[in-house]
Amino acid sequence: MKKFFTVFVSMIVILSLITISCNTEVKENAEPVKIENTLQSVSYMKDTVGYNPQLLLEDFAKMNKAIDEIGYPDAGYKTWLNQSDESDVRFMIVGCWPDQAAYDIIHDHQLFINARTSLDSILWNDLQSVEYHRFGIIK
To answer: What is the pTM of this model?
Structure first.
């Protein structure tokens, strides 16, 4: 009887440990909460110097990394290359933002300003803005 009791208690302890470890694993693998982006900016850029799209992508990646570090991993920029030869617009830059307040926080933050420095001369000297639009989500 004493041996049965010892085995029974041991089984309960083992099952308890397995349950605890499974619950911990589920919590660690839970997906982070995503912030809905309700504000977008779209810029159409004319290329005046034949700028390398890969370099543009790398510069925006630096800014997106800064945006992540500021605390907005779901916000940032995507760069698009025009596939048509019938337009002088070569690039489209799409920015996605949770809201105007987050946009302001990001753009005023020193990490973002530092990351944007190299891109500023490209956007103002080598690429020409053809159109700029801001969109808010309809709820």
So the answer is: 0.70
